[in-house]
Specification:
Elements: H1 2-28, H2 30-40, H3 45-66, E1 75-79, H4 84-95, E2 99-104, H5 107-119, E3 123-128, H6 134-147, E4 153-156, H7 171-199, E5 203-207, H8 220-242, E6 248-254, H9 277-290, E7 294-297, H10 304-310, H11 313-323, H12 338-341
Parallel strand pairs: 1-2, 1-4, 2-3, 4-5, 5-6, 6-7
Bound molecules: nicotinamide-adenine-dinucleotide (NAD).
């Protein structure tokens, strides 16, 4: 409680009181400042005040840009850590001496990533767990807290995509998409947030998607699940702010990435190219270390909601078609059917004898 009050004072100081103080001080010392500024730059006191405010804000921004929080010794749980972005984020964090806990249904992927991390003497644990199984998630959280220690970072990254239009996607697949991409985020947040609140520190990360900002043809179930994931994070962020909590959140909204999940999907040259998986994973880890609340990849995606708000919706839809976003899933192949059905890549999680390694 004392810590959160201190941080509240710190925030007020840095964002409101200090700039106002700079202007008032400059005004009070009007004649002195005016003559000094006249001598130097020929500025009035209020112009000098504004200039000082700008300089102050630039310095504040530079400090933020260059300061990253160390993850050394921190425990990071990554769902979907056996492949793609999850694997790359795990390697990045482990190289920075974080303790990585991978959760996935892909046994081979888990084993491979643990071995990759062990090869450079990093510390990693892996758990075979279906993130949609609420009870399994809750008992896994207890197990992790008891054996590895309190969790500092939770990255809700596991995801699935069908790439089918609304009437083509099976009921089961639509439900699975929601369960993995959005509902499971509740279970992981509910499992780990209480302990973070007690410690008044921690970080919840959601790997959402640009598909959570605008609808795309062939992605109705996926878009809906990602809109839900973004909504969850926005409400959570505000709930934490109301409690003056130091627990941080980062919502990530990337365009297509070359991990394999969206194989065949097309980018838009110059405006929205397909993202590189390694660069994306590294940028996400940096955002976590900087405490960035929202990460649009590429940054131009930050204008999507604004454009939808100010444009006639017909024009917004026309723009989506004109730019090729509507047709971006036309050649989608993805990882193939078996990936989600678990035929080749996954193991049954009923094999509880061997679910931690
Ligand atoms: N690849 C892209 O173009 C792209 C773009 C935007 C957002 N994203 C999001 O990024 C995240 C990572 O995607 P990726 O590209 O690395 O895909 P990926 O397929 O390589 O990784 C997803 C991982 O989630 C795991 N997973 C799936 N269902 C699970 C379940 N029920 N329980 C536990 N684990 C499960 C898979 O086994 C896999 O290891 C996803 O949430 C995805 O929606 C991807």
């Amino acid at each position: 409680m004392a810590k959160s009050r201190a941080s509240q004072i710190k925030i007020r100081l840095s964002s409101v009181i200090l700039p106002v103080f700079v202007i008032v001080l400059t005004a009070r010392m009007g004649s002195l400042v005016t003559s000094a500024c006249n001598a130097l730059f020929n500025l009035q006191w209020w112009q000098a005040g504004l200039a000082l405010l700008v300089v102050y804000k630039v310095i504040q921004w530079l400090v933020w840009l260059t300061s990253t929080e160390s993850v050394k010794g921190k425990v990071a749980v990554i769902t979907g850590g056996g492949s793609g972005l999850g694997r790359l984020m795990a390697l990045n964090l482990a190289k920075q001496d974080a303790v990585v806990v991978l959760v996935d249904i892909n046994r081979k992927g888990l084993v491979d990533v643990v071995n990759e991390i062990a090869a450079f003497n990093g510390l990693a644990y892996a758990h075979l767990c279906d993130v949609t199984d609420r009870d399994a998630v809750y008992s896994l959280a207890e197990q992790i807290s008891a054996t590895v220690g309190p969790v500092d970072i939770v990255i809700n990254n596991a995801g699935v995509v069908s790439g089918k239009s609304l009437l083509e996607v099976s009921d089961a697949m639509a439900e699975l998409t929601f369960d993995v991409n959005a509902v499971a985020h509740f279970w992981f947040v509910k499992a780990f947030l209480p302990s973070m609140l007690v410690r008044n520190s921690g970080h919840i990360v959601s790997i959402a998607s640009a598909a959570g900002l605008a609808g795309v043809v062939g992605l109705s179930d996926y878009c809906a699940s990602k809109f839900a994931a973004i909504g969850l994070m926005e409400a959570l962020r505000l709930e934490l702010a109301r409690q003056n909590s130091e627990v941080k959140t980062t919502t990530v909204m990337p365009f297509y990435i070359n991990t394999g999940m969206f194989d065949g999907a097309s980018g838009i040259p110059f405006i929205l190219p397909i993202l590189d998986a390694q660069e994306t994973a590294d940028r996400i880890v940096l955002a976590i270390q900087r405490g960035e609340k929202m990460l649009y990849l590429p940054p131009i995606l930050g204008f999507v909601s604004l454009l939808r708000g100010i444009m006639p919706i017909g024009l917004f839809d026309y723009l989506s078609t004109l730019l090729g976003i509507s047709a971006s899933m036309d050649q989608f192949k993805g990882r193939g059917q078996d990936w989600h059905e678990g035929a080749d890549n996954s193991v049954s999680i009923t094999d509880e004898s061997d679910d931690e390694f």
